[in-house]
Design goal:
Layout: H1 6-31, E1 42-51, E2 63-71, E3 77-84, E4 94-99, E5 105-108, E6 128-132, E7 138-145, E8 159-163, H2 175-180, E9 186-191, E10 193-195, H3 198-204
Antiparallel strand pairs: 1-2, 1-9, 1-10, 2-3, 3-7, 4-6, 4-8, 8-9
Length: about 200
Amino acid sequence: MKPVNYAVVLVALLGCQICTVTSSEEFTMTELPPESPSFSGTLYATCRMRPNTQLSPGMPKVYGKVLFKQTGPNGKLRVTFRLHGFPISDSQSRAIHIHQYGDLSEGCTSTSGHYNPSAINHPHHPGDFGNFGPQKGKIRQSVDSEATLFGGRSVLGRAVVIHEQVDDLGLGGDAGSLLHGNAGARMACCVIGMSGPKQWNKFHS
């Protein structure tokens, strides 16, 4: 019987232990960004809305902010819209969605389609916020979302897009309805970036 080389076994065991710790540390870092402990496990994000650089003539120029707050990976993401620039006399509802890329190099067009990590039909994408009707040219509303700021499916770095028309919520009976709700042209967009709590607290004090 061949003698056991205990040195080799020991090295192998230590190697596995190191791999396990490294893997665990990487997972923890992915789930909990370094900013998380600073705010008691809560993450904040801000998206500064600007009109589409390829906006059609006569379209409203929408500005404002979209604010995000989530306490822990398992907490519900709260999203607040503070938008203005809609026609004062126009209360038409507009669709708002999270899109795949935070790329504004070609205006809102380069944000690509809806952020859809599970490859499912609209309106079940995590960033399908729905429809919002302006009041006196403004949208002032908060919603809970299935999106997250944590982990591999975080929406940080992705885009929020305001559309020209109402979202048909997947009931349009065609392929477009199941992709994007037939919400029409892209009026304005912004990129979601991590932030501190200052902006959130400003609008929620």
